[in-house]
């Protein structure tokens, strides 16, 4: 019964990808496989609303993603937020995709637990679960929000309770579920990579070799302000 009701599933993995690294790529691939997602799309943000402006231009970040995804048919690049420009709001991206895909396709937005904790401050955040599922990736041992710990935490605990879903729900329903996945993250961050490059040290083996070559060819992340790394 459930198998016959299976919907086409699309998941978005958003980020600044400044630069893309193996932590992002492994996470996207593991989520795709674990949740049997049909299309896993990496969505670079133009100017994220919740963090500082990326170190290098959207064009460079997008080029590095294109290079990283060469020969990787499992992951796709979705440039819609770059085309739209301005500050990036997830709700606009999901509205746009819903209008494009219709109401039948299952749409998921993946985020880290750190992002979930800031959710109540996102632009029109209540609308997100009307448009898509939210897949939250938690590191083993991390604490989910619990009631009675401040307004935001209480709101989130309620949301987790009301919308809790399973991987099967993601394939049966178009949106509206909040799924928490425990997944071990590779200890790699873009911040560390930027600091290494700015400090004259090598980030080799933390990101695809072809992406490192691009960084070197274009002399990215060398200036002070992208991190001294010492
Ligand atoms: P920065 O160090 O600049 O904050 P970042 O490496 O955390 O960057 P982002 O572009 O901010 O990368 O993150 C995009 C998405 O990838 C987010 O959902 C984030 O939680 C996730 N992510 C970042 N690093 C890892 C990692 N090592 N393993 C799995 N997921 C990661």
List the helices and strands and how they pair.
Elements lengths: L8 E7 L6 H13 L4 E6 L2 E2 L9 H12 L5 E3 L2 H5 L2 E2 L1 H12 L4 E7 H6 L6 H7 L1 E6 L12 H13 L3 H6 L5 E5 L7 H9 L10 H9 L13
Parallel strand pairs: 1-2, 1-6, 2-4, 3-5, 6-7, 7-8
Helix pairs in contact: 2-10, 4-6
Characteristics of this structure?
transferase, binds adenosine-5'-triphosphate, 230 residues, 17% strand, alpha/beta, Rossmann fold, ATP-binding
What can you see in these coordinates?
- This protein is an alpha/beta fold and 230 residues long.
- 40% of the residues lie in helices and 17% in strands.
- It contains ten helices and eight strands.
- It has helices at 22-34, 58-69, 80-84, 90-101, 113-118, 125-131, 151-163, 167-172, 190-198, 209-217; strands spanning 9-15, 39-44, 47-48, 75-77, 87-88, 106-112, 133-138, 178-182.
- A six-stranded parallel beta sheet has the order 4-2-1-6-7-8, with helices on both faces. It has a two-stranded parallel sheet with strand order 3-5.
- Helix 4 (90-101) runs parallel beside helix 6 (125-131).
- The longest helix has 13 residues, at 22-34.
- The chain starts with 8 loop residues before the first strand and ends in a 13-residue tail after the last helix.
- Adenosine-5'-triphosphate binds at residues 15-18, 23-24, 27, 111-112, 185-186, 188-191.
- Keywords: ATP-binding, NAD, Nucleotide-binding, Nucleotidyltransferase, Pyridine nucleotide biosynthesis, Transferase.
- Catalyzes the reversible adenylation of nicotinate mononucleotide (NaMN) to nicotinic acid adenine dinucleotide (NaAD).
């Amino acid at each position: 019964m459930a198998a016959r009701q299976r919907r086409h599933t699309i998941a978005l993995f958003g980020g600044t990808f400044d630069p893309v690294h193996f932590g992002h790529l492994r996470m996207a691939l593991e989520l795709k496989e674990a949740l049997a997602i049909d299309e896993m799309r990496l969505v670079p943000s133009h100017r994220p609303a919740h963090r500082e402006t990326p170190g290098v231009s959207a064009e460079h970040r997008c080029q590095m993603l294109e290079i990283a995804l060469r020969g990787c048919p499992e992951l796709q690049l979705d440039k819609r937020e770059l085309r739209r420009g301005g500050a990036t709001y997830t709700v606009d991206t999901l509205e746009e995709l819903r209008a494009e895909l219709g109401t039948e396709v299952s749409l998921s937005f993946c985020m880290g637990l750190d992002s979930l904790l800031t959710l109540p401050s996102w632009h029109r955040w209540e609308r997100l679960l009307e448009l898509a599922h939210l897949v939250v990736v938690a590191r083993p041992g991390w604490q989910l929000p619990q009631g009675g710990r401040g307004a935001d935490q209480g709101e989130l605990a309620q949301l987790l309770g009301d919308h809790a879903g399973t991987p099967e729900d993601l394939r049966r329903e178009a949106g509206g579920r909040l799924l928490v996945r425990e997944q071990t993250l590779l200890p790699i961050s873009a911040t560390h990579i930027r600091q290494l490059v700015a400090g004259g040290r090598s980030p080799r083996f933390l990101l695809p070799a072809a992406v490192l070559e691009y960084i070197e060819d274009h002399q990215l992340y060398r200036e002070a302000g992208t991190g001294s790394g010492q």
